[in-house]
Design goal:
alpha/beta, about 25% helix, about 450 residues, eight-stranded parallel sheet, Glutaconate Coenzyme A-transferase, six-stranded mixed sheet, 15 helices
Length: about 450
C-alpha cells in the first residue's frame, strides 16, 4: 500500500469552500456506491454557470447526482461510470452518462498505471476513528488507489453509513487535504424485489450443487438471492463467502449460522467482500462486525486470489445467451444496462479453484412490450456485448434445468441449451440450429 503525502496538513473547511476548489477542465472522482458524496455534490451543482468541461468518474450511483440534475443538457458537467445503476442507465439513455468498460477487480491497477492522477477525489466516509482513519464504510473497492495519486483528497464525513472493519478500508488523516461535514443522511438502500417462481426454481437447482465447505460468491439480483433462501433449507455446512458484493441474502445465511468460513484459505473464518448494497438490515449487520471483512476489490475479484479458496461457487445472472454459450449480461443491443463488473473474473476464479463451480443463471423468457421472448437465442441481439465468452462458461441454469457446457462441442452445447429453454421456443431453436449447421444432421448424441 502506498501512503500519500499531502501538500498540507488536513484542515476542516466548509462545503462551499470545498466546492470552490473545482476549476473548469478538472477531473473529479466521486468514488463508488456508498462513498459518493452528497453535500459536496449539491454545493458544486450551484456553481454550474461558473464552470465548463468538468468531468466526473463514479460507479453504481445510489442517489441522483446534483451536478447531473443541474445540467440537463450535459454542457458543463460530464459523467463517466464504470458500472451503471438504474440512475446511471437512465442518464445514459438521455446522453448524459458514459460507460467505462472494465473488469471491476482491475480498476485499482487502472488508477495506478493508466489513468492520470485525478485533480480532486471526494469520498463520503465515516467520522475519523480513534486511530486517525476515515473508514470507507461498506465500499472499499479501489478508493485507496485513487487517493495514492490524487492531487487533492477531500473526505465528506457522515454519521449515516456503517463502519466496516477490513483490509486497508480507510484513509488516514495524514493523507487527507480537507475535511468537510456531510449531511449525515442514512446510507441509500437497494430494494429487494420478491423472488419470482423462476427465481425459486433456479435457486433450488443451484442449491443442490453446493457442497459442505463451499465458498460463495453471489451476484446482484433476485435470482442469486433466491439461492441463499434455498440454502437456508439445505444440509450444506461450513459455508464460506468471498464475494464482490455483500447482499441481504448472504446476511440472512450468516445470521442463521450457516456461514462460518472454517474451510477458507483467504480470510479464514471471515466473510470477505468489497462493497455492500441492500437494506438497513444489511448495514446494521455490517456495522463494526469483525466477522465480515471489507477488502480492496483486487483482493476479492482477481482470479488468482479467488482460487486460493477451495470449492468456490460463483452465482451470477445474465440477460441473454446464444446457442454457443456466449453470455451477454450488460447490454440490450446498443443500449448499455449495467457493466461487466466482476462476473467474468469470478467465473474464471471459480473454475481455477479446487472443486470450484460457476453458475450463470437466467429466467428462460422475458417480456418486452407484451411480447414473450426467449433469453436463449440462436444469435445475440445485434450490438449486445459478450460478458462471458463461450470458452469460460461452466453451468447454465434456467427454471427448466441445469447443464454443464465445459468440454461440450458446439452441437452438444446447442442441444443442451435448447433443453433448458422455455418449451414454447425449443422447436424453433432446434430448427434454427440445424439450418445454420450448428447441429450436424447425422450426428449421434449419447
Amino acid at each position: 500500500m502506498t501512503i500519500r503525502a499531502p501538500a498540507r496538513q488536513a484542515r476542516e473547511i466548509s462545503v462551499e469552500e470545498a466546492a470552490g476548489l473545482v476549476r473548469s477542465g478538472m477531473w473529479i472522482d466521486y468514488g463508488a456506491t456508498l462513498c459518493q458524496p452528497d453535500a459536496f455534490d449539491a454545493a458544486l451543482a450551484k456553481r454550474k454557470d461558473e464552470l465548463s468541461n468538468v468531468k466526473f468518474r463514479s460507479c453504481l450511483t445510489t442517489r441522483p447526482r446534483a451536478v447531473v440534475e443541474a445540467d440537463p443538457d450535459g454542457k458543463q458537467f460530464h459523467w463517466f461510470s464504470s458500472h451503471f445503476s438504474g440512475y446511471d442507465r437512465k442518464k445514459h439513455d438521455l446522453g448524459l452518462a458514459n460507460y467505462l468498460p472494465v473488469n471491476l477487480g482491475e480498476i485499482p491497477d487502472y488508477y495506478r498505471r493508466f489513468i492520470d492522477p485525478v485533480d480532486i477525489v471526494v469520498l463520503r466516509t465515516c467520522r475519523m476513528d480513534e486511530n486517525g482513519f476515515f473508514n470507507f464504510s461498506a465500499a472499499n473497492l479501489w478508493h485507496r488507489a485513487i487517493i495514492e495519486r490524487a492531487k487533492c483528497v477531500i473526505v465528506e464525513v457522515s454519521d449515516g453509513v456503517p463502519y466496516c472493519p477490513g483490509d486497508q478500508n480507510g484513509v488516514h488523516v495524514s493523507e487527507v487535504d480537507f475535511i468537510i461535514e456531510g449531511d449525515h443522511a442514512l446510507a441509500p438502500e437497494l430494494p429487494n424485489p420478491p423472488p419470482t417462481d423462476a427465481d425459486r426454481a433456479v435457486g433450488r437447482l443451484i442449491a443442490r450443487e453446493i457442497e459442505d465447505g463451499s465458498c460463495l460468491q453471489i451476484g446482484i439480483g433476485g435470482m442469486p438471492n433466491a439461492v441463499c433462501a434455498q440454502l437456508m433449507e439445505s444440509s450444506a455446512t461450513d459455508l464460506g463467502v468471498h464475494t464482490e458484493m455483500m447482499t441481504d441474502g448472504l446476511m440472512d445465511l450468516y445470521r442463521a449460522g450457516r456461514i462460518n468460513g472454517a474451510k477458507k484459505t483467504l480470510y479464514p473464518g471471515r466473510i470477505s467482500f468489497s462493497f455492500a448494497l441492500g437494506s438497513r438490515y444489511l448495514y446494521d449487520g455490517l456495522h463494526r462486525n469483525d466477522d465480515i471483512w471489507c477488502c480492496p476489490v483486487e483482493m476479492t475479484n482477481l482470479p488468482h486470489n479467488i482460487m486460493q479458496n477451495d470449492r468456490v461457487v460463483s452465482i451470477n445472472n445474465t440477460t441473454q445467451m446464444d446457442l454457443q454459450g456466449q453470455a451477454a449480461s450488460e447490454s440490450d443491443g446498443h443500449r448499455h444496462i449495467s457493466g461487466t463488473g466482476g462476473q467474468l473474473q469470478f467465473v474464471r476464479g471459480a473454475y481455477a479453484s479446487k472443486g470450484g463451480k460457476s453458475f450463470i443463471c437466467m429466467s428462460s423468457t422475458y417480456d418486452k412490450k407484451g411480447d414473450k421472448r426467449s433469453r436463449i437465442v440462436l444469435s445475440l441481439t445485434k450490438g449486445n456485448v459478450v460478458t462471458v465468452p463461450r470458452t469460460d462458461i461452466m453451468y447454465v441454469v434456467t427454471e427448466y434445468g441445469i447443464v454443464n457446457l465445459k468440454g461440450r462441442t458446439i452441437a452438444e452445447r446447442a442441444r443442451a441449451l435448447i433443453s433448458i429453454a422455455h418449451p414454447d421456443f425449443r422447436e424453433d431453436l432446434e430448427r434454427q440450429a440445424y439450418e445454420h449447421n450448428m447441429i450436424p444432421r447425422h450426428f449421434a448424441f449419447s
